[in-house]
Specification:
430 residues, Rossmann fold, seven-stranded mixed sheet, 9 helices, OB fold (Dihydrolipoamide Acetyltransferase, E2P)
């Protein structure tokens, strides 16, 4: 481990890296990384540490502003590590984000249609992970600093749904005078149709009766609360309403397990479902939904009368999908399986029976499964990704195996960050 270096230096910002961090070149042979800076700016920076030729800094002062700098930032910006790009005027930020997929994609193929990027609005994120720490006379609820374990107390957030933020603020005020634990708790808070689904994670044991009594004060805001102690299976400790979430505008719902995956914003969910349904036109098509989760795509497809095979890593998600499909009389057209898709490679023969394959993998992508899928020459692959780099890697595999990109739709549901949702359609060349 390298010892910290405490040195102040003036740096000119040449460009941003892929994550939106400022980069300064031409300082000896080193490359300097400075957050919250923009190309063309001169900043006074504090050198934190160095690894080989990479020097990591904190931004102490902007000596020369970019004309593109925006002052329309939340009061927690630069303290909270959640957003890195609030300081950039929106149109410039939007162009940079669009080009983060456009420019590298055009290096793979010039024969591609890239649609205009769709953006979520402020206060639209309906999933969030908070940290809670109690002191003697106060309670901190918030997020970590950039590249730090230091917790920042958050009173409001321009990204997160106000219902979530309002609940966490009320909880913090209550716990200022009601002691719970000296351990840092992790809160996974999901906004569902009938209240908030909350998973509380703790390393030690916690008195459940006492915890229940605390949260009874927030009954009107809660759908369910789960407690996960020492990485064991989550335990349901309070239940007031179904963990139900309507998918898209198609009069179909899924039942979400504790901290279960679904799209971070409603606008992204609607666009993804709409484009999937537009791409599947033949009524007897047999569809494979890999990384199905609780049925964000499976259930609307079942509602439309398609036959779907759903596979996911998470047992709870598949169980929830089966339950919700039965409740809505959609079970007859579904098959399912639980597989570790990150480690268990599905044989090529299995894929041959499908007309369409939908993939919505985690950030690491789906390299393992694609090596089998491309051998089948399935006529259409709908690939949804939240990571530009893994998407480009996987797209290269598809393109080199006879596929063409019909179109790309970028969706910015992770505002003021480098993260981008990508909807893509690949079709086999005849």
């Amino acid at each position: 481990m390298h010892k910290p270096i405490k040195t102040t230096i003036d740096l000119f910002i040449d460009k941003l890296d892929k994550s939106g961090i400022g980069i300064s070149l031409k300082q000896n042979e080193d490359v300097y990384f400075i957050p919250y800076a923009l190309p063309g700016e001169t900043v006074k920076a504090n050198i934190i540490n160095k690894f080989k030729s990479k020097v990591y800094c904190s931004n102490l002062e902007i000596l020369k502003n970019s004309s593109e700098r925006s002052e329309n930032t939340c009061k927690h910006f630069t303290k909270c590590g959640g957003c890195l790009l609030q300081h950039w005027e929106y149109e410039n930020y939007k162009k940079w984000k669009f080009n983060s997929i456009r420019n590298p994609l055009l290096k793979l193929t010039t024969d591609v249609k890239i649609l205009d990027m769709i953006s979520a609005e402020n206060f639209s994120r309906r999933r969030a992970k908070f940290f809670l720490k109690q002191g003697d006379n106060n309670c901190i609820i918030g997020f970590k600093e950039y590249r730090s374990e230091t917790l920042i107390n958050i009173n409001n957030c321009i990204i997160i749904d106000p219902e979530i933020m309002g609940f966490m603020t009320e909880l913090k005020n209550y716990l200022n005078t009601n002691y719970l634990t000296n351990e840092i708790l992790v809160f996974h808070v999901n906004k569902l149709d009938y209240g908030l689904d909350i998973l509380i994670q703790i390393k030690k044991s916690l008195k459940i009766d006492y915890l229940i009594n605390i949260f009874k004060n927030f009954k009107s805001k809660i759908a369910s609360i789960y407690l996960q102690q020492n990485n064991l299976n989550p335990e349901l400790i309070l239940f007031y309403n179904k963990n139900k979430l309507n998918f898209g505008n198609y009069n179909v719902y899924g039942l979400i397990p504790p901290a279960g995956f679904y799209q971070a914003t409603k606008v992204a969910e609607n666009e993804l479902i709409k484009n999937i349904l537009n791409e599947i036109e033949i009524k007897n098509d047999y569809i494979l939904d890999l990384y199905s989760g609780s049925g964000t795509f499976t259930l609307p497809l079942l509602k439309k009368g398609y036959k779907v095979y759903a596979i996911d890593n998470n047992k709870s998600s598949i169980e929830s999908l089966i339950k919700s499909s039965k409740e809505q009389n959609l079970f007859n057209n579904i098959e399912y399986n639980i597989l570790n898709l990150n480690k268990e490679k599905i044989e090529t023969q299995f894929f041959k029976k499908f007309d369409v394959v939908i993939l919505d993998p985690p950030r690491a992508g789906s390299l393992l499964q694609l090596t089998s899928i491309v051998e089948t020459k399935v006529k259409k692959i709908i690939y949804i990704s939240c990571n530009v780099q893994s998407f480009l890697r996987d797209a290269r595999i598809l393109l080199s195996n006879g596929y063409k990109i019909k179109y790309i739709l970028p969706i910015d549901q992770f505002l003021y960050t480098s993260h981008l949702e990508i909807f893509s359609v690949f079709e086999i060349l005849n």
